Amino acid sequence: MAFNHLPAGVHDALTPLSVTPVTHSVPMAKNHRSDRTPADPASRPSPGAVLDRLASGPSRAARITHTEHLPPRAGRHAVWPDRIRPEVIAAVQACGIEHPWAHQARAAEHALDGDSVVVATGTASGKSLAYLVPVMSTLLDGAEAPNGRGTTALYLAPTKALAADQCRSVKELSQPLGTSVRPAVYDGDTPFEEREWIRQYANYVLTNPDMLHRGILPSHPRWSSFLKSLRYVVIDECHTYRGVFGSHVAQVLRRLRRLCARYGSSPVFLLASATSAEPAASARRLTGLPVVEVADDASPRGELVFALWEPPLTELQGEKGAPVRRTATAETADLLTDLTVQGVRSVAFVRSRRGAELISVIAQERLGEVDRSLVRRVAAYRGGYLPEERRALERALHSGELLGLAATTALELGVDVSGLDAVVIAGYPGTRASLWQQAGRAGRSGQGALAVLVARDDPLDTFLVHHPEALFDQPVESTVLDPDNPYVLAPHLCAAAAELPLTEEDLELFGSGCADVLPQLEAAKLLRRRTRAWHWTRRERAADLTDIRGAGGRPVQIVETGTGRLLGTVDAGAAHSAVHEGAVHLHQGRTYLVRTLDLEDSVALVEQADPPYSTVARDTTSISILETDTEIPWGSGRLCFGSVEVTNQVVSYLRRRLITGEVLGETKLDLPPRTLRTRAVWWTVTEDQLDEARITPEILGGSLHAAEHASIGMLPLFATCDRWDIGGVSVPLHPDTLLPTVFVYDGHPGGAGFAERAFHTARAWLSATREAIASCECEAGCPSCIQSPKCGNGNDPLHKRGAVRLLTVLLKGAANEPTEGTAAG
């Protein structure tokens, strides 16, 4: 029997809420008005005072395991390069910015010199101005050129919200410059009647990599004048381009550079990231160009108080009678409620769409018990909303109409929400980079800020709140991406050939993997070589061969049956587990039941309902080894890395009572299996090692399964991943190894570099895993150590002590860490 643990989108379980009544120890702010605007920073309570109030309720103080104080920092000014147009400097000064910070001036100097540059300074350090000032100055120069349109610039953001927010900022800043700077957002929400004007007249186009891939590059003849004049490409929040998504974006950028060269331009790339290790190396992998690094942050910073918060144990019992902590969802909802009552403007970051909706609903209900006028001051924000819903929420948060927001990572990036006082993070977001990005959402006007990380009942979260040095004494992770991944490279070579026939001279641009991939594309009759170039052979669009976000197909639309109203979408890869027939779906505080999932038409039909339960999908997984790239002895066992094929099928779902998490029943499902070819790390143990670890046949499966769960939970400390990006399988006797084997694999076609990183850090990774299990205070295993929220086998069997003994023996024979390859960064 194989015990499995699946990647992104497979389970989004609603964990049980505690029935402990909430006591609001903080009185409602006096003279509260529903139209309240953000308070003056000088009148705001200090972050320490806000935290003291949050911790003043019964048993609240004991939940804080650590408090980190980051002191304020003074800023260092400089002067803008003398090549910046005086009109632009005047426009910046009109916004209240008399002098730039030193890093802004330095980045602008590089941009004007024609050097591609990455600005890697802290959140709210003014990175936008560092690239906007040289871009606007150059656009102003171009507007006076005699050739009509003049110079152009392209801005790429990972989310529509960020692009829309940046467009607002550019319009405000460039208002004194008249029509010399003409910014416009061009994405899937842009009305068709506006698109032709943008192509012909806009000189600063703000879009996202998806639209560049599917819309702009395939239609490059219609964008020829824009591309011919393209001087700058701005890539904001560049640290988000990692894994498979980052690898796809790297190839999209190479396609852009190729077309620009054909039209006679060679744009300078300006990149920005608040959280990136080795930013120049990461930017070079992303763009394929030499990049200068500006990382000396000269901006001032207000005090940041960062608290680690562990919810208490409850009297409830989970699977197999394990003790259960109060959920991060319930705890975060309480904190958001208390912050709103205090008048503290806050965002609660939640890992799942369902969690964001649930926290919003709970906070609204509890606010209604305090003051009904506060209910509408809290809302949810997540991906999958319709464009008009997202824009309205962004405006309300920016204006101060909303005091509290429960948001997914759709709001993590640089949307200007200045004026926030506090951030609550419901569960470790997977990487230190994301943690600091989310914490940096507060205090963006230079005032002090509070950040609270609320631990989930999970091995990694439990480890972190008791080992703060793993968060505060470690640098952020390196960005992992591999543009040579053949699953990534192949569709982009097809797309490039469809845009312009692909020549020998182009191959160097796309990387060394072309030599292996091109013959396969020719054999598949996707490309045909004629004389000196390869041509796209099909009538359909080559850009539609791949979804660059790795979703694996077109999104499933969620439609209300009675009205035909489109509620939103869910990624194709998550559809089997999220919107299967009978699933509970939450949308803006309302509950729906899925009546039908039509996979052929990518539509889930839902109707409003009020079931007293949540749903959790169950699945089965098998794995086979395709090729072993490398292996090293660990005692008599082996540590291996290579290619595997994973077959997964969602087979049923559980109904869980909302309050207690009690399982009410299981319903079978008939959904097709899905196959994934990817990369994995795996380790085997021998009979001698099992004897030494005192692992009998009766506890072997549970010991392997427990070690697998905990190792997946700990991997985000060592690889730039989230536990939902990876999966695992443990087998007491695997047919390919003929030994007990534990696999951990990338949840993306072709791999994403995470399993390779695990292979290269295996001794440290599995040592931390063993410590996390051994130090947990539970008796036989719990969600804080070996139980997994996404286990396809219902966390059965598991054996905590066996896992500790097994890992102890395995690590005794551990070899030195292997030398890292390029794909792991």
What labels would you give this structure?
single chain, about 800 residues, alpha/beta, 7-stranded mixed β-sheet, 25 helices, about 25% strand, globular, disordered N terminus
Describe the structure.
One of its GO terms (molecular function) is helicase activity. It holds the Pfam family DEAD. Keywords: ATP-binding, Helicase, Hydrolase, Nucleotide-binding. Residues 108-294 form the Helicase ATP-binding domain. This is DEAD/DEAH box helicase. Helix 9 (243-263) links the parallel strand 7 (230-235) and strand 8. The protein has 25 helices and 31 strands. The strands form 6 sheets. Strands 1, 26, 27, 28, 29, 30 and 31 form a 7-stranded antiparallel beta sheet that branches. By secondary structure, the protein is α/β, with parallel strands linked by helices.
Helix and strand layout, with pairings?
Elements: E1 3-5, H1 47-54, E2 64-70, H2 86-94, H3 102-113, E3 117-119, H4 127-143, E4 152-156, H5 160-174, E5 183-185, H6 192-201, E6 204-207, H7 209-216, H8 224-228, E7 230-235, H9 243-263, E8 268-272, H10 279-287, E9 292-294, E10 304-309, E11 313-317, E12 323-325, H11 328-342, E13 346-350, H12 353-370, E14 378-381, H13 387-399, E15 404-407, E16 422-426, H14 432-439, E17 449-454, H15 459-466, H16 469-472, H17 486-499, E18 502-503, H18 504-510, H19 514-523, E19 527-530, E20 533-536, E21 556-560, E22 566-570, H20 572-578, E23 584-587, E24 590-598, E25 603-608, E26 613-634, E27 637-657, E28 663-668, E29 674-684, H21 687-692, H22 697-714, E30 726-731, E31 741-746, H23 754-760, H24 762-774, H25 800-812
Parallel strand pairs: 3-8, 3-9, 4-6, 4-7, 5-6, 7-8, 10-17, 13-15, 13-16, 14-15, 16-17, 21-25
Antiparallel strand pairs: 1-30, 2-10, 11-12, 18-20, 19-20, 21-22, 23-24, 24-25, 26-27, 27-28, 27-29, 29-31, 30-31
